[in-house]
Amino acid sequence: MTRAGLPANPNDLADREAMGLPRSFVSRTDHVLLAEAHRKLAGREPEHLAAAAEDHLLPFTERLAAGSLLGLLEDPRISALDPAMVEVPAGTFRMGLDPARVAATAQEWRHVGVLPEWIRKETPEHTVDVARFRLARYPVTNAEYRRFLEDTDERWLPTSWRFGVYPAHLSNHPVWTVPPEAADAYTRWLAGRTGRAFRLPTEAEWEYAASGGDGREYPWGEAFHPERCNTAEAGPLGTTPVGIYPEGRAPFGCDDMAGNVEEYVADDYRPYPGGPRVADDLARDEKPYRIARGGSFTRFGDLTRCRRRHGWYSKPIYAMGFRIAETP
């Protein structure tokens, strides 16, 4: 807290402090229950584990255990050259935020240091037409990204891979942290390998897919529910296997559009039509920065809002990944 009693800017805090964590050890996962879940599911076929990982009737520890076991096997949901895609129909929607709602939205998240100017980037609300497209059901995983690196001479090693070593046990977790140029290179590689029109989604496409185009605040509705996504509020303080938060699924069927890792889109930051240019912490040396959406396991739920515009900042707490889109 600042002397004035207001929350400090998270970018001015140490990472654990910005995540609301004490200096001493803290665990968010009941390791006894998790161990029991692993024992219960051990030996099951991958198809059974995949179904369990996305079964909203199972407790979180069982979904996590199923996804973790899949990470050690070959997850049938993951295919680098044939990713699971969701059809997103064409539509017209109202993108962004009414300026009259900025103060109330900032106040709602004031306790985690959100400033009004960060929300002002979402204004004004404006009408956008979106053509039919496809969006990956999951963000790009470590396993898929490894295939990209093996097939190319690219050296975009994720900083989350300690010493550049591939984390085999996290094969079905989203890849992070990579720069936007790596995401661009990945989509070019995948398009070239498959002959399909893969790319990053535009910012408008991402918001439309996350909200279903009906103006909802979060992919699941109007109120924030920490149990529906992997964020600093209730998550296990690390990435999770993709798809294990089925109650947080977006309207068209995409998983992990709230939490887990932030997702680059194709667009650099620019004001919306008629909106203000906001020079916040992300604007450095007047250079454009790539927009990211969706929040992450290191950040609070304000970033899971469908309208929230964010981006990369040079701190480990920024967990940056991406998902792919495809032009039919």
TrEMBL record:
Source organism of this protein record: Streptomyces lancefieldiae
Pfam families: FGE-sulfatase
Protein name, entry field: SUMF1/EgtB/PvdO family nonheme iron enzyme
UniProt cross-references to InterPro entries, sorted A to Z: CTDL_fold (IPR016187), Sulfatase_Mod_Factor_Kinase (IPR051043), SUMF_dom (IPR005532), SUMF_sf (IPR042095)
Transmembrane segments: none
UniProt superkingdom: Bacteria
Domain Sulfatase-modifying factor enzyme-like intervals: 83-325
